[in-house]
Amino acid sequence: MVYLFLGQEQFLKNQTLYKLKVKACGEAVSNINYEEFCSGEASIKEMIDSAKTAPFMSKYRLFVIKDINKLSKEEKEALVLFIETKPQSTVLALIADNLPETDVIRQAVVKHGKVMNFDLLEGAKLNKWIFDRFSLFNKQIEPSGLQLLVDNTGNNLMQLELAVELLTTFVGTRDVVKQSDVEKIIGKSLEVTTYQLVDAVGAKNADLALRILQGMDKDTRTISQIMGLIGWHLRRIWRAKKMAAAKMPLAKAAQAVGVPYYASGSFLRQVNNFSARELEKGFKTLLKLDKEIKSTPVQAHRSLELLIVQLCTT
To answer: Which of 167, 175, 178, 250 is the most exposed place for a label (fewest CB within 10 A)?
Structure first.
């Protein structure tokens, strides 16, 4: 079977890919029969040769190629030929944010497999998703609290998942999450907002990171806390890269540094976004800025803006 995952909703993509992995490979040997590439990591020949590998102690083997929209015309043609002739034991999952209907890969999947769209949730669909997540914890949320949650968090499902977990933990045995709970935990939570900020920095999305920063307090104490959390996040990326260099699968490395499942897809992309040299430069800049804030009257907020731009553009 061949699947094409399209759309910008990464959380739902990750969930569906995980379910496909368990279904195709089985939980006991899923890592043995699972392999993942991003376009550009290897030649198309190397990827196809790997995808032809027979499964081990399983009926199927799942092979994933991400960012297939970045493949060249020749690479796409080679992949289409593989789609048409691949072994039945190979389950192929191809992933991209967008692919035109005229694209040869999309046309091949329409003929030989299944196209699945993961568009960003909005309006009633987003509200239902949030209600359903609270239901998993046997909780409900007031409509006013729901609106405030969306206003503060947007429609990033990974961040909303974190917010739901924080709120359900905060209310304890109470069945209903109120607007006041959201105000205390989300609307005024430096930790949650900074999580969004470091996630944007990790994704090298400077525009989003700067917009989030603009809405945060500009006092020196807050800036210091933000810097500390950015440094903590970059250290997790650094540790995961070292583990991957020592031949540990990236997914296991993410777990080892404490990244929860719902954020693992985003974190793995961030590990690939930063080179070791860029991380070293980021650590040095953070240290320098921290010393400046503590010893000299600098414009801390402006300096942090420049740091974010540097981390997102290196």
So the answer is: 175
